[in-house]
Structure formats: C-alpha cells, structure tokens
Write a structure and sequence with these properties.
single chain
C-alpha cells in the first residue's frame, strides 16, 4: 500500500470516528496515524527476523506518541486509537478490523504463559479509556469494554462488559463502534442494584409505618 493510499484510508477512519477533525492535514498530527505508520514498517521487519531494528523503531514511536505497540502484534485495517497516551499492545495481541481503542488501554499478558499470551480482539470491538484486557483469550465481534474495566476472561460476540473484574452486562447489542462511539452510557449493574435496594428499603419502611399505624388503631379500639 502506498503512502497516499494509507493516508486516504486513515483519514477516512479518523474522520468517521473523531468529530474534532476539520481538515485532512490534521491527520498528520494524530498520534494514532503516526504510530501506525511506524508499526507497519516495524512489523514487516519483525516478520523477516530483524527483531532489534523492529523494536528500535517501535520504541522510538512509543517515546514520541505515548503509544506502545510491539512489532510482533497483528493488527487489521481501520484501527483507531483516540488520544492514545498510555496505550499498550503486546507482542502476541491480535486485533481485527474496525477496532477502536481509547487512551490508557492495555492489551497485556499475565506473565505466566508462553506462546500466545495476549488477547485477540475481533472486528468492530471498542475498548474504552483505561480498560485492561489481560491474558490469551478472545473478545468477540461488536463487543464493548467499559472504561476502567479489567477483563480476564473470554467475552462472547455482541456484548457489553463493565467492572473489576469485568463481567457481561448486555448481550446481542450489535451496534458497530464505527457508527456508535458512545463509550460513556454503558450499563452500570452496581448502580442498578443500589437503586433496587433503595426501592425495596422504601417499600419495607412504608410497610412498617403502615403496620405501626394499624397497631395504634387497634390499641385505641381496645
């Protein structure tokens, strides 16, 4: 792929997913754009066995952009890293097409495995700010990972995951992140449980007050 073709593709990706962009030249300023150029070059060198040179290119890119992508990672088309500072993508991570990562995301290994030890993200996955996905398992197509979540086990397709540790709170939400970039209004099961407890507590309190009134009435009748 020529630089012009890559520029055109990346511009389209950034334009679709970031409303802050106004002119094509702004793409050149995006850390995501610059680090992916370096990654593609480093990845080719890594595949040919030039490991030191590949790592040297990737580390220079990490210092300049704050995004650390190991040259051994496998990344598909249309990856968008919004803001990008603090993003880490491990050596054996596999990322499909049309994936969105926000700042502070880690695709890491647990340090105890050999071989494939980093996660696989299928097409159209969105990982919100500060989320950590640790281990060798798969995040299914169209899934969303909530901000600050820590995911340590496989996620089926079309799911929303929140919490520490992360757990599925919604299934079969097939909206594609390219069209739906809302990573804030995700389900909050803890808040929902608190609301239910508050409602039940109010109902119980009202019932107790009602019983007290009935007892007082009965005493007066006696």
């Amino acid at each position: 792929m020529s630089f012009f073709q890559y520029f055109k593709e990346e511009f389209q990706v950034i334009k679709e997913r970031d409303p802050a962009i106004h002119t094509p030249m702004e793409v050149l300023l995006y850390p995501s754009f610059r680090v992916m150029l370096k990654y593609r070059r480093a990845h080719k060198l890594y595949q040919k066995g030039h490991y030191f040179l590949a790592r040297w290119i990737s580390q220079r890119a990490a210092r300049k952009t704050g995004i650390e992508i190991h040259p051994g990672a496998t990344i598909g088309k249309g990856l968008f890293i919004d803001h990008g500072s603090g993003v880490i993508i491990g050596e054996t991570a596999v990322i499909g097409d049309n994936v969105t990562l926000y700042q502070g995301v880690t695709l890491g290994g647990n340090g105890k495995e050999t071989g494939k030890r980093h996660p696989t993200l299928k097409d159209n996955v969105m990982v919100s700010a500060g989320a950590k996905i640790i281990g060798s398992f798969t995040i299914g197509e169209n899934s969303k990972i909530g901000a600050g979540s820590v995911v340590i086990e496989e996620v089926p397709p079309n799911c929303t995951v929140v919490g520490v540790p992360g757990h599925v709170v919604k299934r079969n939400d097939v909206r594609v992140p390219r069209n739906s970039m809302d990573h804030i209004h995700l389900p909050d099961p803890v808040y929902d449980d608190i609301k239910i407890l508050q409602q039940e507590n109010t109902e119980l309190t009202n019932r107790i007050l009602e019983l007290e009134r009935e007892l007082k009435y009965l005493k007066k009748e006696q």
